[in-house]
Amino acid sequence: MLGNFIYSNPTKIYFGDEAHKNLVEALSGFGKKVMLTYGGGSIKRNGVYDDIIAALTAAGKEVVELSGVMPNPTVDKLIEGCKVARENNVDFILAVGGGSTIDYAKAVSVSAWYDGDAWERFWVKQEDPKPGERIIPVGAVLTMAGTGSEMNGGSVITNHATKMKIGKVFGEEVMPKFAVLNPRYTFSLPHRQMVAGIFDTMSHIMEQYFSGDDDSTSDYLAEGLMRSVIASSRVAVKDPENYEARSNLMWSATWALNTLIGEGKSQDWMVHMIGQAIGAYTDATHGMTLSGVSEAYYRHIMKYALKRFARFAHVVWEIPTESKSDEQLASEGIDALAAWIKDIGAASEITSLGVTEDMLDGIADATIILTGGYETLNHDEIVEILRKSL
Ligand code: NZQ
Ligand code: ZN
Question: Reduced to 3 states, what is the DSSP secondary structure of residue 158?
């Protein structure tokens, strides 16, 4: 463990199949006017909405609803939410949904009282709010496990006009004050969304794991989480209402991206950068954009970190080392990852997400190139990875 860091996470977690019963208490420390934010209506069909309204009523809150947050929330929707929050002078935003709804709530939280172009300031220029600027506090009720948004400062917004999908990681002041994690709330997820969330979780861990070559506690934590995700995924795809598996998947997703396992490390995140660029072009499901490019990406960078990939194969996928070379073991680890992607039903390629050959250059141009991984990609390498992922 070589890095210096300060670790703090202010989000209070209420976990379990009775977690929602804590909502009244959780809301009590905040103001009266609550903006209830949710997506396209799944919470009305699965009964979660009724639980939330009951809690808001019991807590004596005045509720302003803002629904219709789409997967991969857009700048236009952000502008709408800011208007509603400001006109109603809301004291608190309660986001009920998956990563899109929670990311969106954070975006409104920092943007509502800013008079300029929030997209340009927070996402394009990656600025932080200044001390003293008004930020509306956010709470979350999670209905889809995967992004980790419930316990982090991330907020990913899409701008269709400029074909950009950008994530901004805000500080503690924007992170949810609390998050209600009831695994039963995820039972109604369509199979495809559950699988997308599972792969998103795995990808978050791999993005942090595939970097550095020191002996780091963070990597051992990452390996444990990956083993748990793989084991629970195999149960959940066959038996989606298996509470044990779904609760493990929910908790693993939270820990995969609440900053703990990245502490003291450089990090990669290139699968996400490529995935986000694909998302900007196709609006495809986030987790599927990652699964679609992962095999080609990891085969590409494997040669720069054979020891780490060999360790991944042995520790995470339990592939016997026998007398294999690091290269062989590393390659078998990626085979295992690719087989698992197929087994759970995640996308193995990007053609099914709407990507066509003529888009590859543009997607590569829209990919933000980061330098924390084992190799810094150039434009042509990204095109090559995309082509192999078709
Ligand atoms: O809108 P509703 O009707 O609620 O339906 C949603 C949506 O269609 C549905 N859904 C969610 N919970 C459900 C349910 N359907 C039935 N039952 C339930 N219990 O699932 C669909 C997808 O939801 P969404 O919130 O879009 O999915 P996810 O949680 O994967 O969030 C994706 C967004 O998060 C960003 C992604 O880029 C994308 O914009 N990310 C956020 C991160 C962060 N904050 O740190 C990191 C991630 O890497 C990611 O980039
Ligand atoms: Zn992700």
Answer: strand
Give the Cα separation of 189 and 85 in Å (integer): 29
Find the residues whose C-beta lies inside 6 A of ligand 1.
Answer: 39-43, 46, 71-72, 97-101, 103, 143-144, 146-149, 152, 154-156, 167, 185-186, 188-189, 193, 196-197, 200, 257, 272, 286-287
CA dist 317 → 178, 253, 257, 309, 314 (Å): 34, 19, 21, 11, 6
Assigned superfamily of 191-388: Dehydroquinate synthase-like - alpha domain (1.20.1090.10)
pTM above threshold 0.90: yes
Report the chain (390 residues): mean pLDDT per 10 consecutive residues. Answer: 89 98 96 98 97 98 98 97 98 98 98 98 98 97 98 97 94 97 98 98 98 94 98 98 98 97 95 96 97 98 98 98 96 98 98 97 97 97 98
Question: Ligand 1 centroid vs 105 CA: distance in angstroms?
Answer: 13
Q: Among the CATH numbers 3.40.50.1970, 3.40.50.150, 3.40.50.720, 2.60.40.10, which is that of 12-185?
A: 3.40.50.1970
Ligand 1 centroid to residue 313 C-alpha, Å: 30
The residue extents of the domains of the chain are 12-185, 191-388
